C-alpha cells in the first residue's frame, strides 16, 4: 500500500484526518505507566511511550489503555512496525526524552503518533527482522556504551549504556515517590565490572516494566543497562561517589535475555565478551556478594569528617 513517512506527517498532519500507513523501527521504549484514579472510569488506564524512526527522522509514539497489555511486551527496541489507522496529536510537553544513539538524527518533537483501540482503531503489524528490506531505509538501533575507565570523566546527567559482570547485587528497597505518599519506587543497588578499571560500575536499578529481569539479577551474570544517567558525586572526593541510575527509558538485560538484541553488534560489547573469556570464573566468584543493606553514598569514616 502507499506509505507515508514521519517528515511528511509533520508537514501535513493539520490538513488531514486519515493518514497513509507508516513503516518504522522502535529505537527507545519507556516503562509502562499506570494513570488510574478512583474517580475516573477507564478500564485499563495504562500508557507507554516509544521513540520510533524511519529514514526521515524520529518521533514519539504512544500506546494507550488496553493496547498496552496486548502489545507492550512484543514491541521491543529494534522491532519494525507497520502502522495503519493511527491518530496524530500535538506532543505532550512534559514527557521525558531519551538521548538518541545517533546524534545526527532529526527529531520531530511537535507531534506524536497515538495508538488507540478506537477513534480510530489502530492496526498494528510486527514485521519479522528477516523480512525487513534495506531499501526501506529504516535506521539501525545505535547505542552509547561506555567503559568504567571513561565514567569518571563524564558530566552529571550524561546518558549512556553499560555492560558488565555483576559482582554485587543488593536486596530490593523501597523509597516513597513523594512525601506522605502511598506510592513507592522499588529499586536495588548492583556493582558490575568490565575489566577497564579497578572500580566497578555502581548502579541504582529501579524496577522497570521488566519484573522477570529485575528479580533475577545475580552475581556472575552479564548485565546490560541502556539509557542510564550519570550521577556525579556531591562530596569532596567525587570519584568515590559517581554512580549510574535508571531513566524512564532504561532497559535491563541479563544472561539469557541477550540473544537477538541489537546491542550484541556493538564494538564495546564485543570487547567486553573478549575480556570475560580471559577471566577465571572461580576467581571472580570469590569476590561476589549478594544481599544486605547498602548505604550509598557512604558516610565518612569518622564523626569529625561527618
UniProtKB/TrEMBL annotation:
Which terms in the Gene Ontology molecular function aspect does this entry carry?
single-stranded DNA binding
Q: What is this protein called?
A: RADX protein
As given in the record, the signal peptide range reads none
List, alphabetically, the Pfam families matched: RADX (PF17659)
Species whose genome carries this gene: Erythrocercus mccallii
Q: Which InterPro entries match?
A: NA-bd_OB-fold, RADX
Amino acid at each position: 500500500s502507499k506509505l507515508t513517512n514521519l517528515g511528511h506527517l509533520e508537514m501535513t498532519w493539520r490538513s488531514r484526518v486519515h493518514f497513509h500507513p507508516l513503516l518504522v523501527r522502535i529505537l527507545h521504549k519507556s516503562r509502562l505507566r499506570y494513570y488510574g484514579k478512583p474517580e475516573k472510569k477507564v478500564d485499563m488506564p495504562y500508557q507507554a511511550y516509544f521513540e520510533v524512526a524511519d529514514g526521515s527522522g524520529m518521533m514519539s509514539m504512544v500506546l494507550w489503555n488496553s493496547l498496552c497489555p496486548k502489545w507492550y511486551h512484543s514491541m521491543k527496541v529494534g522491532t519494525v512496525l507497520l502502522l495503519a489507522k493511527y491518530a496524530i496529536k500535538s506532543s505532550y510537553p512534559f514527557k521525558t526524552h531519551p538521548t538518541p544513539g545517533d546524534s545526527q538524527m532529526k527529531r520531530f518533537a511537535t507531534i506524536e503518533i497515538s495508538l488507540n483501540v478506537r477513534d480510530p482503531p489502530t492496526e498494528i503489524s510486527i514485521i519479522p527482522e528477516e523480512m525487513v528490506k534495506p531499501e526501506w531505509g529504516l535506521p539501525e538501533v545505535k547505542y552509547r556504551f561506555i567503559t568504567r575507565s571513561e565514567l569518571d570523566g563524564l558530566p552529571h546527567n550524561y546518558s549512556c549504556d553499560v555492560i558488565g559482570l555483576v559482582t554485587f547485587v543488593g536486596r530490593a528497597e523501597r523509597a516513597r515517590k513523594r512525601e506522605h505518599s502511598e506510592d513507592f519506587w522499588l529499586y536495588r543497588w548492583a556493582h558490575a565490572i568490565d575489566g577497564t578499571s579497578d572500580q566497578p560500575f555502581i548502579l541504582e536499578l529501579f524496577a522497570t516494566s521488566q519484573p522477570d529481569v529485575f528479580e533475577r539479577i545475580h552475581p556472575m551474570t552479564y548485565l546490560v543497562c541502556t539509557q542510564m544517567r550519570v550521577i556525579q558525586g556531591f562530596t569532596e572526593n567525587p570519584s568515590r561517589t559517581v554512580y549510574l541510575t535508571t531513566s524512564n527509558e532504561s532497559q535491563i538485560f541479563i544472561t539469557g535475555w541477550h540473544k537477538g538484541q541489537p546491542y550484541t553488534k556493538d564494538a564495546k560489547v564485543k570487547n567486553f565478551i573478549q575480556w570475560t573469556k580471559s577471566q577465571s570464573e572461580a576467581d571472580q566468584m570469590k569476590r561476589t556478594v549478594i544481599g544486605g543493606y547498602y548505604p550509598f553514598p557512604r558516610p565518612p569514616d569518622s564523626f569529625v569528617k561527618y
